[in-house]
Amino acid sequence: MAEKYFIVLLADEGIPGHAFINFGRESDLQRSSITDGTFGMYPKEGIKIKIGEVPGELRDDFLRNSDHKLIVEVNKAEYDNCLGILNKWRSKNYELIKSDCLTFVIEIANAISSKIKVPTRIGFDNLPAEWLKKLIQTN
After folding, report:
1. Looking at the DSSP assignment, which residues form a beta bridge with residue 18?
2. DSSP string spanning 5-74?
3. Are 4 and 74 contacting, i.e. CB atoms less than 8 angstroms apart?
4. What is the dihedral sign for C-alpha 68, 73, 76, 78?
5. Positive/negative CA dihedral, 81, 75, 41, 57
6. Which residues contact 26 (CB under 8 A, 6 or more apart)?
7. How many CB atoms are closer than 10 A to CB 22?
8. Cα-to-chain-centroid distance, residue 68
9. Which helix or strand (DSSP H or E) is residue 3 part of?
10. Distance CA 2, CA 86 (A)
11. Residues with Cβ < 8 Å from 50, sequence gap 6 or more?
């Protein structure tokens, strides 16, 4: 009996809004759905108006509501690769447009680009919900 693996790309509306990722799998053996976590990138000291790089951290977004989501079934190798990206982001700093919540989600999306077409991040697509809506429409 095989497990099925899923990467869920999520975003909520608002200015600026927020993008985050859920790692999940279905186990035939355990007859259950299992979440390996839901994560988003944040500035460690909270949202402040500051130009440039600040300490960042991945936070648990399991209870966060989303307005938009795309569920992508992946294989175990792709899932493990995405978990590796997650671990890499644990030590990253936060910087708007360069290393923020949407950059994190886009890096995960690019890692599974054999399954989905990943749009570029330009103009109004810099807002998480707008980018994710474009991703959903494209796929």
Report:
1. 12
2. EEEEEEEE-SSS-EEEEEEEEEETTTTEEEEEEEEEEEETT-S----S-EEEEEEE-TT---SEEEEEEE
3. no
4. negative
5. negative
6. 3, 4, 6, 32, 33, 34
7. 20
8. 12
9. strand 3-12
10. 24
11. 43
d(CA 53, CA 1) in angstroms, rounded, equals: 46
Parallel, antiparallel, or unpaired: how do β-strands 54-60 and 68-74 relate? unpaired
Q: How far is CA 49 from CA 46, 58, 94, 117, in A?
A: 10, 19, 12, 33
Q: How far is C-alpha 8 from the chain's CA centre?
A: 7
Instruction: Kindly report, residue by residue over 58-82, the tens digit of the pLDDT.
Output: 999 999 999 999 999 999 999 999 9
Q: Which of 86, 95, 116 is nearest to 42 (CA)?
A: 95
Measured distance between the N- and C-terminal CA atoms of the chain, rounded to whole angstroms = 29
Handedness of CA 73, 75, 80, 84 (dihedral sign): negative
Is residue 16 reached through a cis peptide bond, with omega within 30 degrees of 0 on the bond before it? yes
pTM higher than 0.85: yes
Q: What tens digit of pLDDT does each residue of 93-130 get?
A: 999 889 999 999 999 999 999 999 999 998 877 899 99
- CB distance 77 to 103 below 8 Å: no
